[in-house]
Design a protein that fits this description.
Among the domains are: 103 residues, NAD(P)-binding Rossmann-like Domain (Rossmann fold); 96 residues, Helix Hairpins (Orthogonal Bundle); 92 residues, NAD(P)-binding Rossmann-like Domain (Rossmann fold, 3-Layer(aba) Sandwich); 70 residues, 2-Layer Sandwich (Ribosomal Protein L30, Chain: A), CATH 3.30.1390. The chain is 41% helix and 19% strand. The protein contains 22 helices and 23 strands. Helix 20 packs antiparallel against helix 22.
Length: 654
């Protein structure tokens, strides 16, 4: 169905012929339907594999997919192979052997979408690009938000952030990117979605993109960041985060507490001995306190006073230190014994107890469930795994786990205080049943239901509007199709009730993207460039709209399936805006204005200078609205007055 949206011829092979089609209109869309075994050369020849551009092998049997891939490569050495397979090592080896080969697992590809839906927060997705981490956020603007009534939408774009959508209160969801007015003001009740660089990479991206004229501001921000690192609030927050990260590791917490107590006693004892015994130095005082913690009475007081005239308070102190030292050594021996036995005999460690509240209940620990669990553990979100089968102890040992019949486990996972419930088993009906039971037990929890059948998903979505129903195959289909056209799909996220693909391009000489400005890619194709890299150069996150793509460049964009269709066919949206240049306020403005026009519009510098020398004039280049508005703002900074005109070349509407 998705392939036909690209306007290409589609042949299909299946065995046996279905008695009823999941999508009733599908047979009418197929240009050719072959009933047979896709591993057989005659069957492949009947489907004209030798003339195909790409072959998608998506049966539920991975062995069949791999065998068919070998058979197809013999018939067509150049065809692109997109294979459904979860064997990562084998896929990498096949990619090297077969060439023009890419593999996905349909059920695992959308696992991150399930995990993000379970968070029930403003975050809509995480994107890893090498060493960089980006996140997609959708925030509701309330009366206390720092942007309310103070920021224009175009001002939200920065060196580390790009605005994806703006939904005024009461307005429908946008269907594409860039459907927002740059000069609109952020109001209370608006929904704003954006992508930003997170963590330490935020400062890195900001510093690498700040021009030299702003170096003083950069130094100020760097100094403020260092002062923040040294502040007490920052240290307290980091300590609190570290302590919370050990909530599921009680052994580590015991070791930390015992170590802290021993260190405190050692320091206090050293200070007390130095103050009460002036005849010894700091090293002797430290040694005395340490020996006392080890319980060596004679050695201690032999150093202090051979006449045995020890004060009573010092004897009591020695006794308390001996008891504390003995208890600490006992704890240390216990921890070492546990660690050695576990390493020697591979004894399973006891899993941590269930979190009391605000946790995710993950029901079903198959391939999708395991990926969801791994993702949630990586971001340190409280989690409880539920399975009806025993799980090996090596899988996420720090995850609380309940193994029992699924319908009887809901009362054992603190469901009443859970934040969300993810139903990720391989049985759609079981997911629905357990979802309804969870909703009855906790009406306030977020519900995420995994389905496979498109019609079943649509029915549940209509009947249960409070649940997030995600059809694994619907989410994966668009990634498979994008891969069929030569693009590399890095990830997929859900935003505004549609799938957004994180897609990587390597610009070729015959590519529709070659030679275009990133502004034209963004507004002409409806994509959002988030990374650009030239050969032998470092990658730039949130690249400037003024970069022109050359052969060999690497480009990563956020795109819907409609955007990918437009890029595939080279169908750019029409440019409908021009710039009317009114007046230059200084002589320097003539030069600066021409440079700005050439950089942002993409026209030649000679054309830009001719327009600036003949003011007032109209720039003879059609632009996209966002691009034209940005040009007028930049011209204003260069002391050139200009305004937009709408319409085709030669006919303008003011």
């Amino acid at each position: 169905m998705v392939l036909k949206g690209f306007g290409v011829l589609v042949s299909a092979i299946t065995i046996p012929q279905p008695e009823s089609w999941e999508m009733p209109t599908l047979p009418d869309l197929l240009d050719d339907l072959v009933i047979g075994d896709c591993r057989q050369p005659d069957c492949l020849e009947n489907a004209n594999v030798h003339a195909c551009r790409a072959v998608l092998l998506v049966t539920s049997d991975e062995r069949v997919n791999i065998e068919a891939a070998f058979a197809i490569r013999l018939l067509n050495p150049d065809v692109r192979l997109v294979v459904r397979s979860s064997k990562q090592n084998l896929n990498a080896l096949l990619g090297q052997s077969l060439g023009n080969f890419v593999a996905f697992e349909a059920s695992q590809l959308p696992a991150s979408a399930f995990a993000i839906a379970a968070l029930a927060s403003e975050i809509r997705g995480f994107i890893h690009l090498g060493d960089h981490l980006l996140r997609v956020v959708k925030v509701s603007i309330d009366d206390e938000h720092r942007w309310r009534d103070l920021r224009l939408l175009h001002e939200l774009n920065s060196a580390t952030r790009r605005l994806l959508s703006h939904i005024p209160s009461g307005q429908p969801l946008p269907t594409e990117f860039h459907q927002w007015e740059p000069d609109a003001r952020v109001r209370a009740g608006d929904l704003v979605a954006y992508i930003e660089v997170t963590g330490n990479l935020t400062e890195l991206a900001a510093t690498t993109s700040v021009p030299s004229s702003s170096s003083r501001g950069w130094l100020d921000r760097l100094w403020q960041g260092r002062r923040q690192l040294l502040s007490g609030a920052y240290l307290r927050r980091k300590l609190r985060e570290f302590w919370q990260s050990t909530a599921q590791q009680q052994t580590k917490r015991v070791a930390i507490i015992v170590g802290s107590v021993m260190l405190s006693l050692l320091v206090c004892g050293t200070v007390i001995f130095k103050l009460t015994q002036p005849g010894i130095n700091w090293l002797q005082a430290f040694y005395t306190a340490g020996v006392m913690l080890l319980g060596s009475y004679d050695t201690v007081f032999g150093i202090l006073s051979p006449q045995d005239s020890i004060p009573l308070w010092m004897r009591l102190m020695n006794l308390s230190y001996m008891m504390a030292g003995t208890a600490s050594i006992a704890v240390l021996y216990a921890l070492l014994t546990e660690t050695l036995l576990a390493a020697k005999f591979q004894l399973p460690k006891k899993r941590p107890s269930l979190p009391p509240q605000d946790h995710v209940v993950l029901i079903g620990l198959g391939r999708v469930g395991r990926r969801v669990a791994t993702f949630l553990q990586q971001i340190k979100h409280p989690l409880v795994g539920v399975s009806n089968q025993a799980i090996e102890s090596s899988f996420l040992p720090q995850m609380p786990l309940v193994v029992n019949e699924l319908t009887s486990t809901l009362s054992k996972v603190n469901l009443a205080t859970a934040k969300s419930v993810v139903l990720a088993t391989d049985d759609e009906m079981a997911n629905l049943e357990l979802g309804l039971m969870a909703r009855a037990a906790n009406p306030n929890c977020a519900l995420v239901i995994r389905t496979f059948d498109t019609r079943f998903s649509a029915s549940i979505d209509r009947l249960l509007p409070f649940a997030k129903v995600l059809c694994a195959y619907d989410l994966a289909a668009e990634a498979f199709v994008a891969a069929a056209f030569g693009e590399r799909v890095l990830n997929l996220i859900r935003l505004n009730e549609q799938t957004v693909l994180v897609t990587e391009y390597t610009i070729a000489s015959n590519d529709h993207l070659q030679g275009h400005l990133l502004a034209e890619i963004a507004y002409g194709y409806g994509a959002v460039p988030i990374l650009h890299q030239r050969s032998h150069e470092s990658a730039r996150l949130m690249p400037s709209d003024d970069i022109r793509l050359d052969v060999g460049d690497r480009l990563v964009v956020l795109a819907t399936i409609n955007s990918l269709q437009q890029i595939e066919h080279g169908h750019m949206l029409p440019r409908q805006w021009q710039i009317c240049l009114d007046q230059a306020l200084s002589k320097d403005a003539l030069f600066d204005g021409a440079t700005t026009i050439a950089r942002i519009s993409g026209c030649s510098l000679a054309t830009a200078r001719d327009c600036m020398n003949q003011l007032p004039s109209v720039l003879p280049v059609l632009l996209y609205k966002h691009q034209a508005q940005r040009l007028t703002r930049q011209l204003r900074k260069a002391q050139v007055l200009a305004h937009l005109v709408s319409g085709r070349r030669g006919s303008f509407e003011f």
